[in-house]
Specification:
The protein is built from nine helices and 21 strands. By secondary structure, the protein is α+β, with helices and mostly antiparallel strands. Strands 1, 5, 6, 10, 15, 16, 17, 18 and 21 form a nine-stranded antiparallel sheet that branches. Strands 2-9-19-11-12-13-14 form a seven-stranded antiparallel sheet. The longest helix has 21 residues. The radius of gyration is 20 Å and the shape is globular.
């Protein structure tokens, strides 16, 4: 009987693995944003933050260059995107920052690898690395959050946002903190990146790492590798990547609960840094890691000390495709329905607050 039970357990584990597992595939490189030409092929938003209600103006490419908010560091050959920390901002004005979206879009059968050495953090700061479907009324077409953090939270998060009908079922992932399995709308199905160096000063001290996101028929997966653990394929200028060799992802959303072909259209990749807004500035969450008033005590006046760490330092963005081709038909510029995240945070702020509160509890062992 004991042997029979063990065999039955092994068979059951195998079935679960087939239903909720990670299905690796070979992908060939189709795009490499790096070095002096990193910013070629991106659109700058050039508009105030009308999607997350942040206290920022996302500047144009020209102003980003003139103000030294987006540039390639000549000493490291890495791309810098930052919040303006040199200007005096009077009351009732917003602070300048950067949001860029890839001009190319990529559909199912895509892997994005993003090498980040430093990510923005600090009170009022809300950085994100994510994808959405341009031309669709959000959340139609789907959104993948690869990296998102706020304020001085100890961890970051990842997740999906879709229309009704997509859920996280039987994931095969390393993260033990799931903050919602219904992917619909602003709340989304969020997973905490429970690496001790996934955000903030700890991320900076560890010299960041590499985020990898896979959009496949079998599901969506996101990996995070700390700098010391980055696989050789992402240290070298590899022309191919096999996701089956990457190990278990940090977050996994199998197709068993979410028909990827139904919920995800070709995606554009976005970096942005906003301030306060529906998430970082929420009165339910901001006081948990920061003091004072998000706008009055941080955004306005002199931002030198507040925003010294509010920048992305990016080594590269590499895009791999199962078809070894990219689709450059999409554009993410402007503030139309194709700009993504319309109402995302405001409609789901309570659940998002719970998500990051759980992350704080997991690290510090107390409920805020």
């Amino acid at each position: 009987m004991e042997t029979s039970n063990k065999l039955r357990s092994l068979i059951l584990c195998g079935v679960v693995g087939l239903v909720g597992g990670v299905y690796g595939a070979q992908y060939g490189i189709v795009k490499d944003y790096s070095g002096k030409t990193f910013f070629s092929g991106w659109n700058f938003y050039d508009h105030y933050d009308d999607t997350m209600n942040g206290d920022t103006i996302f500047v144009s490419a020209t102003n980003a260059s003139t103000q030294h908010l987006a540039y390639v560091d000549s000493s490291t050959n890495r791309a810098i995107m930052k919040v303006d920390n040199t200007s005096f901002v009077p009351w009732n004005f917003k602070r300048d920052s950067v949001r860029i979206s890839s001009q190319d879009t990529w559909g199912i059968g895509t892997v994005w690898a993003i090498d980040i050495w430093h990510a923005p953090f600090g009170c009022s700061v809300w950085p994100a690395l994510w994808t959405f479907a341009p031309g669709s009324q959000w959340p139609a077409g789907g959104e993948i959050d690869i990296f998102e953090g706020i304020n001085l939270a100890p961890t970051s998060q990842m997740g999906l946002h879709t229309t009704a009908g997509c859920t996280q079922v039987s994931p095969n992932q390393t993260s033990k903190i799931v903050n919602g399995t219904n992917c619909e709308g602003g709340a989304g199905c969020i997973v905490t990146n429970d690496s001790p160096a996934s955000y903030g000063q700890a991320f900076a001290d560890a010299q960041g790492g590499v985020f990898v996101a896979e959009l496949a028929d079998s599901g969506v997966s996101v990996w995070f590798f700390e700098r010391k653990d980055v696989p050789d394929v992402f240290k070298n200028n590899a022309s191919k990547v096999d996701t089956s060799a990457l190990g278990t992802p940090m977050g996994n959303w199998p197709s068993g609960g979410c028909n990827i072909n139904q919920f995800f259209l070709p995606q554009t990749l976005v970096f942005d840094i906003t301030l306060c807004g529906d998430f970082a500035g929420s009165p339910q969450f901001f006081p948990q890691t920061c003091s004072g008033n998000c706008y009055l005590d941080y955004v306005i006046n002199n931002g030198t000390s507040q925003y010294a760490n509010a920048y992305f330092d990016v080594g590269y963005v590499r895009v791999f495709s199962a078809n070894s081709t990219g689709d450059s038909s999409g554009s993410s510029s402007g503030s139309s329905s194709g700009s993504g995240r319309n109402g995302a945070a405001s409609s789901g702020v309570t659940k998002l607050v719970v998500a990051v509160t759980v992350a704080v509890v997991s690290v510090f062992g107390f409920v805020l």
